Amino acid sequence: MTEPILSLCGVNKSFGPVHVLKDVNLDVHPGQVTALVGDNGAGKSTLIKCIAGIYTPDHGEFKFNGENVTITGPRDATALGIEIVYQDLALCDNLDIVHNMFLGREIKRGPILDESAMESLARKTLDSLSVRTVKSIRQTVASLSGGQRQTVAIAKAVLWNSKVVILDEPTAALGVAQTEQVLNLVRRLADNGLGVILISHNMNDVFEVADNIAALYLGTMAAQVAKNEVIPRQVIELITTGASAGVEKAGVN
Amino acid sequence: MSTTATPIEVNEPSLKNSLQDYWAKVKSGDIGSLPAVLGLIVLCGIFGVMSEFFFSNRNFANLLTQASPVIVIAMGLVFVLLLGEIDLSAGYASGVCGAVLVLLVTNHGFAWYTALPISIVCGAALGLLMGSLVSRVGIPSFVVTLSAFLAFQGILLLLAGEGGTIPIADKTILAVENSNLTPIQGWLMYLIISIAYVLSGLNRINSRRRAGLKAELLNLWILKTTSLLAITGAAVYALNQERGNPPLISTRGIPVVVPIILAILLAGTFLLGNTAFGRHLYAVGGNAEAARRAGINVKRVRTIAFVICSSLAAVAGMLFASRMNSISPSTGGSSTLLYAVGAAVIGGVSLFGGKGKMRDAILGGLVVAVIDNGMGLLGYGAGIQFMVTGAVLLVSASIDAISRRGASSN
Questions:
Q1: Preferred mutation among B30, B203, B279, B297 to probe A, highest tally of A CBs within 10 A
Q2: Which of A158, A169, B73, B95 could potentially form a cystine with B340 if both were Cys, beta carbons 3.0 to 4.6 Å apart?
Q3: Pick from B234, B254, B274: which residue ends a domain?
Q4: Which residues of B touch A75 (CB under 8 A)?
Q5: Which residues on chain A place their C-beta less than 8 Å from a C-beta of chain B?
């Protein structure tokens, strides 16, 4: 197996008296989809917010490409190449696809926006993801379907040579066909060599697209296992009870 | 693994496709200034038929100078409205800044070129105060600017002295609303702007083609550009005709205020369309949370929008002073602000934020002015005028709301 691109070791995070993350370990490998599962309140959101730099963990080790790093803000995470696609997508309806993809990071020539360069790059990115469902990349996001919006949000995340992309429940609000589209896209991200963290409640999605599964239970990492070593029932047991017969407990240092 | 992806846009640009694209845009709620243009044509038609004086050269020039202060305030309001905020104080802000200008020139002997920048800085300071209260303290802009509306009215009363008016005699300031360019200057200006417009349009199409992107259809662009140049050329021609009373007084040429408005239009359009600040303004108006997560300094963008709005109100204050030869406690009061907001909305700026252009303020301002002017010529009183303007505003706001609903139900 390849070296992990991102490796967390013994991450702890408390909010006042509430100990949300307890010695969490997580490995993300390039070219693989790591599904992060867990019940509501298990700490999934807190964990990804620590990775994205929105929260700073109390203690714990972050290794990126084998080197120790500290992430103290969203900018640090972005600089490393970690991008997060939020569940509510954070797109501006009144702007077109290109504007949204470059929002806050516009390409400029002097003080002037370089529309041609941005449009070319946006199209190249969408092409590399084999996105063919949008008619024009100059249409406003308001006119897109849910799946297309998800596609734009994901394309925005991979635009910047990112190494790790975190997807927060990307299929939660989608229909069957669009879910399929987005899952294919998630698979393609990994095939393009990115490390992908997929948060999902849906076991079908997880088993369709993930390479390995990390289950959080009440703030501890119950297990991180390869997909082909477990069956859905075992994962559900990990989520609900934190342990399952036949699954090794995640390495406690 | 990159498959041989087909490009996203496969349809070749043609006149039919371009029309289809435009119709799709209209249907999806992006109607822009179409209602204002149609309204302007209809209103001009009605008033032209009913009053023979309406289409006279003198009335045309009069219309432009009449409309100019409201148009300038409306252009400033565009920035605030794009955020989904409102500035109710812009009318009295123009009064206060106009009073500062007039006081400096008349009572303290300042030259116009020092007094005018000072009054604009005053406007910017008022905008900075309101913008900071809205963005940093988090008070709704409606409340902040409503308080400012009252407070500025008070400041204006104090500056003018109870019931008093302050006259201004500075030739340059008075020339803005009362003098005209010579016909030669007018044509020269037209020529320079036309050439610049054509060159920039060609350059845009060319650079997109070179980058291998879908460019605007050349034929369509030629059609649009020539018709725009023909209409503006006809306007320049009409304004250059004699409209005075020769041989006693000869009056001809483009009013001086027109190039000023054009300059603001160009600067504002550039700022909104071609700079990162403009893009961020639209983004904050569309989805402030998304803008914040994209790393945009939302508070700064909000504050700057209010600063621009009040600064342009100060310019409008200068126009008021020039038009009335004085500043009074009612300058910028009564219906000024409501007309300006109405102008922006009629022109196609959305009150919900995120949608609108600088030129919308001019188109809407002309609609408001045409109603005012035409109804006046037909002898209707202020009562009917207000009612008609109100009805037109209501229609535009409904078009905005309905088109938004159309867009979201897709």
A1: B279
A2: B73
A3: B254
A4: 295
A5: 74-75, 86, 89-95, 99, 103-106, 108, 111-113, 116-117, 119-120, 123, 126-128, 130-132, 134-138, 140, 142-143, 188, 191-192
For residue A123, is it within any domain? no
Residue B101 CA to its chain's centroid (Å): 22
In contact, B345 and B364? CB cutoff 8 Å: yes
Label residues B179-205 b or e (16+ Cβ within 10 Å = b).
ebbebeebbebbeeebeeeeeeeeeee
CB contact under 8 Å between A116 and B213, yes or no, is: yes
Under an 8 A CB cutoff, do A94 and B6 touch?
no
How many domains would you assign to chain B? 2
Q: Could you tell me the sign of the dihedral formed by the alpha carbons of A138, A140, A141, A146, in that order?
A: negative
Which value does ipTM take for this structure? 0.81
Q: Do residue B266 and residue B296 come from a single domain?
A: yes
Each residue's pLDDT tens digit, B315-355: 999 999 999 888 888 888 878 898 999 999 989 898 888 88
Can you tell me the distance from the alpha carbon of B331 to that of B156, in angstroms, rounded to the nearest whole number?
Answer: 8
**Does residue B114 lie within any of the structural domains?**
yes
How big is the A-B interface in CB pairs under 8 Å?
112
Chain B residues contacting A, CB < 8 Å? Answer: 1-3, 5-9, 21, 28-30, 207-208, 210-214, 274-276, 279-280, 282-283, 285-287, 289-291, 293-296, 354-355, 407-408, 410
> What domain count does chain A have?
1
Domain range enclosing B221: 180-254
Give tens-digit pLDDT for B13-67. Answer: 567 777 777 777 776 666 777 888 888 899 889 988 888 888 888 888 888 898 9
Amino acid identity, position B51: S
Q: What are the tens digits of pLDDT across the range A179-204?
A: 888 888 899 889 888 899 999 888 88
Nearest chain A residue to B207 by CA: give it. Answer: A116
Kindly list the residues from chain B whose CB atom is less than 8 angstroms away from the CB atom of residue A99. Answer: 279, 282-283
Q: For chain B, which ranges sit under pLDDT 70?
A: 1-14, 27-30, 162-163, 406-410
Q: Residues in chain B, how many?
A: 410
Residue ranges for chain A with pLDDT beneath 50: 251-253
